[in-house]
Every structure is written in structure tokens, then in C-alpha cells.
Amino acid sequence: MVIRCPPIVALFAAVAVSLMSGDVCLSEPQSNTEADVTPPTADDIENAVRLLSSESMAERNKGVLALFGYVNREDLKDLKDKASLFRQASTSPDVRFAYKLASLLARFPRDPETVTEAEKALGNSTKTEKAPQTPGQGKASSESPYGKEQSQIVAAIAYLERHSPASVEGYLKGKEYDSIPASVRAFFGANPMLMQIREVYIGKMLDSYLAWAPPQGRPDQPNPFREALLVERGGVVAYVAKNRDRLSQPKMNIGLIWLLGEIGDSACFEILAQEYRLHPGYRTAVSLAACTGSLQISKLLESLTDDQLQVFLKHILTPEAYGQIKGFNRNQIRDYWIQHFGEIRQRCVQRSQPQFG
Amino acid sequence: MRAKRTWLVLALAILAALAVGGLVASRGEADEQQLEEVKDGEVTQQGEIDHPGEEEPVPPESVTKVGDNITIVSNTMTPPPGGWAFKEFPSPNPWHFVDIETDPEAPPGSADTDTGSAIKISVEGVPETAGAWPLKGEGNLTPPPGGQGTAEFHWSAKVAKAKLTLTVENNLTECMEGRYCTYTATITGSFPQSGVIWFVFHYTRADGTTWQDEDWSYDLVEDNTAVADQVLEDDPDHKFTTPIWAEATNSGVTAVSNTLNIDVYELWIEYFRDNATGKDWEICVGDAIAHSAIASSDCTSWEWDTPDGVPDAWNPDGSSIDEKDGTDIQIGYSDLASASNSWFGEAYGTVKVFCEDGEGNNHTFYSTTMNQKAKVFFPPAVGVDGQAPSEDNPPCWYVFWRQVASNSQRPVPGLEDFEYKHMASYGESYIEKDSFLWFDTVILRVGIPAGGTHYPGGMLINGIEFGGATGIDCCREVVEHEKQHNVYSLAIQEGAADTDPAVAGFNWVGDMLPDSGEAALGCVVGNKDTFNLAGLKAPAYGGYGDGEYGVMVHARGQTGNAAADWSKGGKQW
User: What 3-state DSSP class applies to B460?
Assistant: First the structure.
């Protein structure tokens, strides 16, 4: 099966792949450029395939990129020896190359031999995976996404996601999020099942984070769940948005306010703005400013009375900066904030990092 | 007639002495091989002159160089009596451009031979090619009123070309002090060779005084060897330039050589410094050192070292260790692994540089001669092996700030009681109750940020500004902070009341600050977090904000011993 897509999509896909490869070369003509619209000859294709087994990783990536271009333009409908190429992907020391090559192979018609090979690789990798780690240790999340051992599983999922989704589901089923290799979590974050697993994980971690209290007599102990949540910051933001009512009623936990400020994502603006309206205070103000995008400044300013605005600004600005804007009207304050957006945001993010000791 | 003939003979003799015996040497600066002009040979009469007396020819009295190609040969003649005077005389062709001038002190046309005083005659200007050239006096002797004789001098002189070339072994332009150098004077061209030729070699000492060495030879070549003087102590350039030239004399003809300017150096350290920052005499283990010596360019076999200690405490190495200058030497981390804090600074910082000059003489220089030692620093943020720190490989700041420095001070007093934990907190402390042994264990730990900045950006609590301390001061604040936690904890364990009630999320009584200490700090018994440290510092302080505030006040402003801080970027950097 060939996925048909308009040329612009193909171009974006190629750029995305090259960005993932980390070796984009803008000056080098790629197969999607105007100068290269003639259909590839058999030699072109053969050369690109030959590049896949080059010693140089840059050459290999060039080969993948060229083949992606041919596929996107529908100049290439299938490839020979897909199983062999799959083996090449799954034994690559560079897991990113494994992902790209297997994703390319998945674009071609289903190859039973490759499916079998990939399913076998998934089965083997399950046996060799480590046991789930204790939540909060955050070790799985900081695992290197590179390595030969992870190429096998990444290549397998990349191929099977399209040609045998059930196999991937079978692999993921019942797994704890932090037992899944970091590269799988990174490359297949949009996999619905993985998203579910991640959501469960973040929910558990967040609950643990919010419930944690330092043991009596042990000062300056950091919350052991914080680092792991920061690694999954995008997932945390999505989770908080989804569970907004539960997490903010009757009052948002101060630990969550700190965490959202440290993440500093404008997707948290609404929930923090609401919290600030209901329960204004220094901490919420700082976290809210850390999560205020430049397009949300006006909205925030409009939501505060003059007095509230002055208190808010006093919380988020340095005494010197606050002195500068004293007497400004709302438009001037907005302009000042936009002009100093980066430094204000950075200061508030920094002030949302807990200090122990 | 006899008087007339005598005067003619005298004039001829003088001019012969001028032309034949007088040296006309050119010591061209731009071209040391420049030809030296020597007036030589007979002087022929071109005109007649009356003169009353006859005198023996005299050799030239002085040779004065006035330009690259012009030399004045001065002489004195006794003028004929009777009121002879010089006057201006045009010099049309074919007369060449040899000028005869009166004594510079006598204005043209005013010299009166009646005075009987000596008149200096100068010959100026020399033809560029050899041959017989007519010479003409620019001045003229005018006969006295009623006297007889011509009014003009006319001579010609044979002009010969000879040159004296001075060279030095290996065409040296510079050398080290104390070096023996051989100079060779070589005469070419028409130079008298009858009898011996006297050579005089002229040298200049470091203090600017001159000396000379004479020797004679039957041939036109002569060598002379001299030892380069020692550079004067405190010479800011650590070198001096000695102009060296030679003279050759024979049969009244003297030739002067070109001048060789030899730069004589003493071995010196130009700089020894951290390459990245350019800080002189400050170097950091693991970082590139820029080094350069002052010496003549013929020196080889360079060696740089820091020899202090037995064995050497520091062993710099790198590709430029055997170069006169470079930026690729550093002290390796292997030295750091065995170092202690007392090694840093100038304790083992003597820098030695060695080289061999072109003659094979050894030169060794120690930086202590220039009252300098390198201050050796350590990189605070990496382990002693240069790798990223970890629990088992603490950062250097932790390793060395707890040790005594060469001044007998610890950079961070109290840090010796702390363990290192590779954590994101500045520190932690608690008292571990042991159910088996009878004593409790006091746990004191510092973490990664304790070597950096305490509370970056500052923190205003209860009107007090906290934060901003860096390096050893940050670490000292952390040490005092954690120790004070234990002071409070011990007091509470030993019975001091701490009655702040439990609140949601912090299900235990107390705020880690004895009730008796709350009022003095402005805290309120019954409120675990009077000053909202849960909002200002970290959410966990909602359970013991008052205890935390108490230790923060206690530790605020505590500093390390700056004189003992040899971390790169630290107080001594």
C-alpha cells in the first residue's frame, strides 16, 4: 500500500525526518526540491538503497531521505529485499536510523517475512526488558535514546504500527510506562495505547507528588516525584488540562501550582488564571506569569482590577522593574510586558523551582 | 719660485694625504655590504698655485660620515702667508663634485691666510665609480693684493674602490648572553696589501660602553671571537642590541665595515597564564596554559615544568611542553587525584623553563627569579578525574573546600563534617535514630548546587533579603544552614517544646523550630509556616517553614575563608 499525499505534505515529512536525523543540510539538494522532480531511474533507487548500508551514518541518512522522497512523490511503489533492509534497521547502533528506515519500509506493501521478523524482535525484546522501576526514580525517563539494543524494538514497532497494529498493542499491553524503553516512548508518543499508558503513569505520579510530605525531622528533602514529572512535562500539561476540575477543586494544591510554574507552558494559563482569580497569592501569581504566553497578556490584564493588577505585578517583577512601571496605564503595562516578555517569564520559571537547603 | 713650488708641494701633499691616506668609509645601514669608497693614488696637479712654504704631508685627522655615500676627510693645512683667502668658486664641468671647504667656522670668502692660522680643508663627495677624477676646490685661495700666482686650486685624485665586509657565524642576528660568537672581516677590492693589515673589531657592552679588539693579518680576512655580554639585571626587554663593526687599516688607508646589530638575550618567562582568560600566573588543572619565553631564536630543546615538590606536585604536559611558546600544555587530572587543598595557590607554583642555545649552552630559568609563581587552581564543578561528578566522584569543590589550605584555613569550615550527595538540593540534614546502637547518627549532606549560587535571584522573606552568595560563601551558608537544622532537632529531641499543630498535608506536630525560639524570629507558635515559605521557597516548607526560616536567618551572610579558596572562578581567581 502506498500512502498518497500532496507534495507539500511530502515535503514536510521529508523535512521532519531530516530534522529527526539531526543532520539536516539545507544547502544540499534533496529529492523533494524543484531541481529534482524527474522520476528516479532504477540506478537512482539502487544508489539510494546502496547508501543504506554505507559505513557513514550521514550517507545512510541520505539514502533514507532520498527513498522517502521517491515514495512521497509516488515514484517508488515497492522495494526488493525488505526483510533484509529491516534487519539492517534493527541492528543499527543508531536508533534514530532504525526508526527512519523501518518507517520507510512500512510505507511499502506489507511483507509477511518482515512482519514475522518484526514480531519476533518484539517478542525477544519483551523478554530482555528490565522490570518496571519504582515510580519517582525517573531513571527510565532519563535513559539514553541511543543504542543497538533499542533499535530492534523501535524498528519493529515502526513497521508493525502500520502492518500489524495488534502486535504493537500486544507488546504494550500490561506494561508500566517506566518499563518501556525511553526511545519507544520518544518515537511513538502518539501511539494511542502508549498515550493511555502514559496518562495512567502521570496520574499516579502526580497523585504521589501531591500526596508527598517530608518526613518529620527531615528538613530540606525534595519531593522525589518532581523530577520524573518534569521529564514528562508535556504529558503533565495534557493530564492537568484533562483533569482540571478535579485538580483545582476546592483549591489547587500548592505543589501543583509550583510544578506548573516550573513547566511554564502556556497551555496551563487558563487553569492558573482561574486559580489566581479565586485564590490570589504570591505563588500562584509567579506560576501564572511563568505560564502566560505573549498572546495571553492582554487577557490576563483585562481580568484584573487596577488594585489586583498592582499586587500581581509586584509579585512577578523585580523591585526595580516594578518601580519602572509604576504609574503606567494598562496599555503601557502590556507593552512593557511584551517588550520584556522573555526575562519576566524566565524569572518566574526560575522562581518556580523549589529551593532546598 | 721656490716659495711657489713649496706651496704647491704642500697643497699636493695635503690633498694626497686626504685622498690617498684618508679613509672614506660608508657604513650603510640599509645595506651592510655596501661598497666603501677609498680615495687613493696620486694626486695630479691641474693648475698652479703660489705658495710660500713647503711642508710635509700629514695624514688625515678625522673621518666623518655624513651620509651613506659621503664622508668628510678633514685635514689641516698651514696656509701660505700673505693674505690668501678662500672665495666662492663655481664648479662647471668637467669638474667633478669633490668639494674643498674651508673651516666650517670660517665663513666662505672670509678666511684670511694672513692670520697664519690653520685652515681645515675638507673633501666632500666621492665619485661612485673608480678611476681618476679631477677634483676642484669649491673655495679658492685668492692671492694677496700685488701678489702673484693663480687664484685657483685644481687637483685630480685617483679613486679606488674597496670594501670591508663583516659577517658573523651562521648569519646570527641574535644570540643568548654568554655565547661565543665569531665574526669575520673580509676586505675586497683595491686595498693596500703591503705589510700587515690591522683589523679592529668594535663591540658594545650591555650598558652601552664600547670596547675593541685588535689583531693583524697578512691577508684580507680576519676572524675575531667575542663573548656576548650578560643582559643587565632589570632590563625590561631582557635583551640588548650590540652594534658590531670593524676597521681595516694599511698604508694610511682605512676601510670601515658594515655594522652588525646582534640582539643578545637572557632567558626569561614572557608569560605563563590561563589561556582562556589570559590571567597571568593563574592556571587551572585541566585547562590550557598559554606560555612563552624570551630567548634568542636559535634556542632549542625547550622544557617547561613546575618542579616544586618531591615528587613534583604538578606535572604539566601537552604538545607545546617542548616549545618556546604555545597554548597546549595543561596539568592533567591525574595530578588532581592525588592533590590536597594545600597544594593549590603558589605552594608548588614555581615555573621552570629550560633551553639550549645555538652553541649548546644550557639555560635554565626559574620564575622565582622574577618573584613569580604560578597560582594553581582546580575546576570546581567536575570530579578530580575531570569527569562529570557523581555520588562516588564528588565535585572538586566538595573535595577541596573541606580540606586545609596552605594557609592552614579551610575554605568552608564545617564542610568536613558533611557527606556529598549527588542531589539537586543544596543540602539536607537529620538525626538518624538508631534502634540498635545507643547513639544517634547526625547526617549532614551537601548537594550539587551548594558549590554554586545560593538562591539565585534572591528571596525576600519577612523583609530580609536572602540569597546571592556564591562559591565558598554559598557553601558556607549551606553548611551553617544544615547544621542549624540539627541544632534545632537536637534541642527538640532533648525536650524543647515544638507544639505547632499538624495541618493538612503535614500530619505531624511541630515546625522544627523550638517554640522558645519562635518569637525572637518573629514567628508564631501555632503556625508552622509564618512567612509562607511554602509559597516562596518550596511547597514542602508548608510543614516546617518556621524551622527553615530560623536556619536561613542563622546562615545568612556566613562566608568562607577567601584566602583558602583556590577554585577556578573563586575568591582567589
Answer: strand
Contact A219 B459 (CB under 8 A): no
Contact A219 B547 (CB under 8 A): yes
Where residue A250 falls among pLDDT bands split at 50, 70, 90? confident
Q: Which pLDDT tens digit goes with each residue over A22-70? A: 333 333 334 444 445 678 888 998 899 999 888 888 999 999 999 998 9
ipTM of the complex: 0.76
Task: Identify the sign of the CA torsion A43, A45, A46, A50.
Answer: positive
- Closest partner residue to A221 (CB to CB) among B428, B455, B532 is B428
Of B449, B433, B452, nearest to B441 (Cα)? B433
Cα nearest neighbour of B465 on chain A: A319
Model pLDDT for residues A263-319, shown as the tens digit of each residue: 999 999 999 999 999 999 999 999 999 999 999 999 999 999 999 999 999 999 999
H-helix segments, B45-120: none
> Is there a contact between A218 and B478 if contact means CB atoms under 8 Å apart?
no
In chain B, residues with a C-beta closer than 8 Å to the C-beta of A354 are: 537-540
Q: What is the pTM of this model?
A: 0.72
Looking at every residue in chain B, the average pLDDT score rounds to 78
Contacts of B537 in chain A (CB under 8 A): 354-355
Q: From the CA of A337, how many Å to the nearest CA of chain B?
A: 19
Whether the link from the prior residue into A250 is cis, omega within 30° of 0, is yes
Q: Spell out which residues of chain B touch residue A346, defining contact as CB-CB under 8 Å.
A: none
Angle between helices A7-21 and A57-72 (to 10 degrees): 170
What is the DSSP-derived secondary structure letter of residue B403?
Answer: S
For residues A202-219, give the mean pLDDT.
93
Q: How many CB pairs under 8 A join A and B?
A: 90
Query: Residues of chain B whose pLDDT is less than 50?
Result: 1-144, 147-160
Cβ <8 Å between A220 and B427: yes
Q: Which residue of A has its CA nearest to B488?
A: A217
Could you check whether the bond before residue A319 is cis, i.e. omega within 30 degrees of 0?
no
Query: Nearest 5°: CA angle at B139, between B136 and B145?
Result: 120
